[in-house]
Amino acid sequence: MPILKEIKENLKTIINIEAVTKTYQEIANLRMNKIRQEVLGNRELIDELSRIYTLAKKVYAAQSQNKKTTKAREASIKHKRQRVIVFLSCNERFHGTLILDIWKEIFNFLTENKADLAVVGRIGKYLAERGRLGHKMFYFELDDDEPEKERIKGIIEFIKNYREIIIFHGRFQTILFQKVVQSDISGGTIQEKELGEIKNYLFEPSPEAVLDFFETELISAFFNQTILEHRLSRYATRMIAMYQATRSAKEKRRELEIEQKKLIRQLLNKKQVEMFSGLQLWT
Question: 25-242: what fold?
Answer without folding.
Answer: Pyruvate Kinase; Chain: A, domain 1 (3.40.1380)
